[in-house]
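step 3/5: co-fold with zinc ion
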Amino acid sequence: MMTITPGFTGSPLDRLDQARHDEALVAAMRTDPEALLLMLDGLHPLGAEEGTLGWAPLAAVQVEVELALLGRLEGRPRFVALTPGVSAFKRSPELFAAITALPPEEAGTYAAARSLVDWHARHGFCSNCGHATAPIRAGWGRHCSNCEAQHFPRVDPVVIMLAQHGTGEAARVLVGRQPTFPPGRYSALAGFLEPGESIEEAVVRELAEEAGVRVHSVRYIASQPWPFPSQLMIACVAMADDDRLAIDTAELEDARWVDRAGVTAALAGEEGAPFVPPPPYAIARTLFHHWLAETAA
Ligand SMILES: [Zn+2]
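step 4/5: write tokens
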């Protein structure tokens, strides 16, 4: 079995979750001359184009907003500014170029910071009573002083899956494209889990809804954070006995079955490959690599 290292995973950051409850300790880390602040422009990682995240000495920076304690790295406390109003669902080509330049573990640290800052920017008011909320736990929650509700950064689970038809040399996987994808790109199908649903049930439902494919034998492969704004991508493979498609064109522009040679050519970026694969930091690409290794004779 191949080693799987999805994008946005492997951050070396020690999250210090115990320390978040110790206000005196967090205050001491804030004034530690070794403390560093993650450099963001809005939510854009400054300096990432060079292949590493940018950090500035916290003591040298004028910060007029709340900070969140990201953790400790290389012995130094790491913070990020909870800048109001930064929440932006738009993702620029420049952002993805920056993420492409980052090693997965650096991207992992960025993902944690980005999702957290974005969550704070969207949760200034209590979802229970509408009153203003304030950060607690060193930036890993918010508290409403009116109704005493506590709110914590949410993670939204998404299933992303390959349906497989046939085995051995005849094995093929289902890929699909959304209208918003770059030209030629196809990827694994995906969808949000709904309340009251297991991972396996969500995989079966999404493939039936989007492509009309009935699957069974759902297997979990790997997961990755996807910080736009804060999904957890849960990658699976499932078996289909029937390859007939009924595409929901409201969701997908196209879907098709691709054999091992086609997936291999796509991942290699060959001219004439049946599709352009997702980028290396997307778990769909990890899933394709896994599937090729798993179905190798
Ligand atoms: Zn409230």
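step 5/5: annotate
The chain has a mean pLDDT of 95.
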